[in-house]
Design brief:
6 helices; alpha+beta; two-stranded antiparallel sheet; globular
């Protein structure tokens, strides 16, 4: 697509990147994987392709590190080698960004030189992509939920939050809900009309956040 925007954006046109994998053991029959994947799947998959013992590596790291967390991504090496069908490893994808370039910035009036605060807007986003059985006869369709918020760092600093998952601190969030199967260009926000899908996606978002958005303990 033609979108050239980096900040405050979770649209597929700007985020999705095709990836080509080639090498010994990669099945020639694997000519395309349509399930959603994430960059966090890269390390587990590469370790799987070279036959690394992930548990042994974690134990070795634990000898001189205070904390070793399980890798949040999926090992998709069996999909690439053709021993597992892509549908067998389908799972939600979680995305977040708090890359807010306006935070802490004061702008100046071009005529007077007087400073003024940057525009106050919800520039932090977390999103989840997952299939729901909303198609004909319950067929799966791919949905995306975007949650616009003021940022977990702001919650911590301003309200004394003790956890990034303290949802009671989320003041006036905004939501976007898209059926990616029916609307791949994300032109129609179904947040107000597809309430059942929104509730399902919010539950998935909570679960994915708890699993993948981790802080040192």
């Amino acid at each position: 697509g033609g979108m050239q925007q980096k900040w405050a954006n979770a649209y597929d046109e700007a985020l999705r990147v095709p990836m080509v994998v080639k090498g010994p053991g990669i099945a020639a029959s694997v000519d395309g994987i349509e399930i959603p994947t994430s960059h966090v799947d890269l390390i587990p998959t590469l370790l799987g392709l070279v036959g690394a013992d992930v548990e042994a590596a974690a134990a070795a790291l634990g000898a001189n590190h205070t904390e070793v967390r399980p890798l949040p991504g999926r090992d998709l090496s069996d999909v690439l080698t053709g021993t597992t069908a892509p549908a067998g490893v389908a799972a939600p994808v979680y995305f977040m960004t708090e890359d807010d370039v306006t935070r802490g910035v004061k702008q100046r009036n071009l005529l007077t030189g007087e400073p003024f605060d940057a525009i106050d807007a919800l520039t932090c986003i977390e999103s989840v992509v997952a299939p729901l059985p909303t198609g004909p006869d319950g067929a799966p369709e791919l949905w995306k939920l975007n949650h616009y918020h003021e940022g977990l760092r702001a919650w911590h600093a301003d309200r004394g939050a003790t956890s990034p998952n303290d949802r009671g601190l989320d003041a006036d969030p905004e939501w976007e809900l898209h059926n990616l199967t029916a609307d791949p260009e994300e032109r129609t926000n179904l947040e107000a009309s597809a309430t059942d899908a929104k509730r399902s996606m919010q539950a998935i978002l909570e679960s994915e956040r708890d699993t993948k958005r981790l802080l040192p303990s």
